[in-house]
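Box 4.2: Ligand-aware structure prediction
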Amino acid sequence: MQQIKTLAADLLQLLFPNLCNACGQPLLKTEHLLCLFCRFDLPYTDFQLYADNPVAKQLWGRIRCANAMAMFYFRKASRVQRILHNLKYKGKPELGTLLGVLLAERLLKSNVGWAVDFIVPVPLHPKRERVRGYNQSQCIAEGLGTVMGWPVCTNVLVKTVSTSSQTRKGRFSRYENLKSAFAVHNGSMLQGKNVLLVDDVITTGSTLEACASVLYDAGIKSLSIAAVAFTK
Ligand SMILES: [Zn+2]
């Protein structure tokens, strides 16, 4: 019976191969979502190792950050772009969870002691989340939180205005527009807390800036930032 099951699994893999979400090569039976080669060979930034890293620098003067990091460098037409594309548009929330686990591994390996009371994922507008079926940043947050023992809070920061039509605007107008797109619910939960804001990719930092602004207004003590990728 076991042999038949194995044979059936092999046949399925032959007909509908599970592919690595980064390089597109068929996965071995022991591999899950990413091949072993990519897991080790992706462009890790190691930003968590130094406080004045490019993500922190990009946010200087804009957001008060206790810690800031992104795990991968993002380049166009790269494996990291393919991972994020599959996470957002191919119905693979489990890929977000895995990325969160990898993020946790980076933090644990480098022995950085971040003070975090809970994680807040950057929210999607409810309409967008309904269409996608999940919020990819929440999936990343859950993978990260499970390993680190940090609870994930999904009901405090909400996106109230859909901002999908702003990609062509400049940084300032985008920020002005974005600032009013986020709101805090259950604000008393946030008072005096060390919050870790989690996003999938950091480009201009405008989204993080807008989220940070409403979180600080709600009385948080400190803010740290972690993302899967950084575009600069
Ligand atoms: Zn691969």
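In the box above, the bound molecule is zinc ion. The pocket of zinc ion is lined by residues 20, 22-23, 25, 34-35, 37-38 (CB under 6 Å).
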